[in-house]
Amino acid sequence: MTIFSAKVSESVGKKICVMRLSAIGDVCHAAAMVNRIQRHWPEAEITWVIGKVEYQLVRLMPGIRFVVFDKSQGKAAVAQLKATLKDTVFDALLMMQVALRANLASRVINARRRIGFDWGRSKELHWLFANERVAPRKHAHVLDGFMDFADALGVPKTDAPSWHIPVSKEDAAWAKAKAAELGPFVVISPAASKAERNWLPERYAGIAKHLHSRGKSVVLCGGPGELDKQTAQAILAHQPPVTANMVGQTSLHQLLALLSHAELVIAPDTGPAHMATTVGTPVVGLYAHSNPRRTGPYNNLNHVVSVYDECIAAQRGKPWQELPWGARAKGEDLMQKISLDSVIHTVDSLLQAPAD
């Protein structure tokens, strides 16, 4: 594989296209890779093809040309992408999404190097659309897998990922004022993308009561979707001491800024858990269906409360180490295997203060 770093460092204007459309958590991981390129190669020209919702999170990242791809528009979105980029030839296209929709859309992007995932992580005919592949890696966290693309370009390695996802002064001021109003607070972001991946409402209520006993305000956060709202209402039906229900009440930037002031975030595998990681807030992740070693909050994998190992072994008859990376456990009742006591224990270990 040719080395790209020398070419970029010799000349201003080398063009790199990043294709990662969704979802919020994965865009957080991708942002760390983009920040790495910017930090070491400030002269590189970066274009990021990204989803409509996800763009709202990273839109203020400096030095990036964003091209919004609205997948709900179908073929019209591909035509718009082609028209927008028709006069650009990229030195490298980083194909960081294996979904067939993204693969097909990538055909209209002109690039000399089309770098995709290695064979082990390639699916949905991803390999047909690339002319290079990143180095193979076994049991990689999604973020580390994205960093493989920077490695393929020859970007110098870093000891740990870092993020620079700016928000507006207005949103930062709003969050600062809200945090002052709340006092010491913990965020519970209870809703994942599917109901079966959510913890039980009564146990969310139970951890809220425990946090209240420790003098912490409890804030519910989440998106504007119906599942998010229903999950919050199911929790509130148990009458926990929740200080504020902000589900569906914040923009992504307001939420990101608010998370930066929280002492802790408790969440299943959902976007706000990874958003919290980007601003350095500790996360207690709750996992049963997916392997947290692959998709957990990157800086707090040792604070994940997970029953994934036992669930996948029971269903597949083998430990996760002997199964395809990313294998998911299935079932609507798996999250109930996560006990309230186990979450309380992990929360206490992070808060590091005696309960009242």
From TrEMBL:
It comes from the Bacteria. CDD domains: GT9_LPS_heptosyltransferase. SUPFAM superfamilies: UDP-Glycosyltransferase/glycogen phosphorylase (SSF53756). Pfam families: Glyco_transf_9. Keywords: Glycosyltransferase, Transferase. This is Glycosyltransferase family 9 protein.
